[in-house]
Amino acid sequence: MKNKERARSLRQNATDAEKLLWRHLRNRQLSGFKFRRQMPVEPYIVDFACLEAKLIIELDGGQHAEQQTYDQNRSRVLGSRGYRVLRFWNNEMLRDMDAVLERIRMVLLDAPHPGPLPEGEGDKARGPVPEGEGENGGGGTWS
């Protein structure tokens, strides 16, 4: 399946957390920035992207160590292309949407990053797994 078709399928099968965040991002509701959801950014499909701010938002469910390593590599590749990557746990989205939106707003209103993130940025270690999330995973927000 091509990335464009896969992105369409992912939009049609969004998680509850993705649906909730999309309600707040769509139609330039967050500080006037335009977001796209399940957007191909080769070779990946990212959950949400704001092209004008070069910001990608990824939502993570419960995951194991291998997924964490994949996500860190993915964030590093996207960062090398000039994107800032924010990662949130699904349950963060469902538990404290106001804090998540404020974090996104702060990053959007920050001066645009002139190039790839400095070494180590965009793949910081996550904190402990929130209760009821995944196996051997981490938690928190990456930026």
Automatic annotation (TrEMBL):
Gene Ontology MF, one: endonuclease activity
Gene3D superfamilies (alphabetical): VSR Endonuclease (3.40.960.10)
Region (Disordered): 112-143
Matching Pfam families: DUF559 (PF04480)
Domain DUF559, residue spans: 2-108
PANTHER family listed in its UniProt record: BLL0828 PROTEIN
Name under which the protein is recorded: Very-short-patch-repair endonuclease
Species assigned in the record: Candidatus Kentrum sp. LFY
Higher taxonomy: Bacteria, Pseudomonadati, Pseudomonadota, Gammaproteobacteria, Candidatus Kentrum
